[in-house]
Amino acid sequence: MAMTRLHYWLHAQTQYNLHSPFLFDMYREVLFARLTPEERRRHGIPRGDRYRELLYKCCNHYHLQPATPNSP
Questions:
Q1: 3-state DSSP call for residue 25?
Q2: Phi, psi (degrees; rounded to nearest 5) at 21
Q3: What is the distance between the alpha carbons of residues 59 and 48, in angstroms, rounded to a whole number?
Q4: Using CA atoms, how far apart are residues 72 and 58, in angstroms rounded to an integer?
């Protein structure tokens, strides 16, 4: 249910209607940013794998490190 609302909200809005700076930044720099073929090859993201692409863009933009199996 929550994903349906989020999906609707993202597609009902345009980048010019977003008031929160965080949401505006996330909309432009993460959700709708395009990866170059070089970035895809370097990080092993197959074309069409939207979930891995989104995860990579989130981690890259917000400078996050993915957890490893041995991390606390």
A1: helix
A2: -60, -35
A3: 18
A4: 21
Closest CA to 45 of 30, 33, 61, 57: 57
Instruction: Report the alpha-carbon distance of residue 68 to residue 51 in Å, rounded.
Output: 18
Please state the pTM of the whole predicted model. 0.58
In residues, how long is the chain?
72
Please choose, from the candidates 34, 24, 20, 18, the residue with its C-alpha nearest in 3D space to the C-alpha of residue 60.
34
Which pair of tokens denotes residue 50? 């939207």
Residue 27 contacts residue 18 (beta carbons within 8 Å): yes
Span 8-56, pLDDT tens digits: 666 666 666 666 777 777 777 888 888 899 989 988 899 888 888 888 8
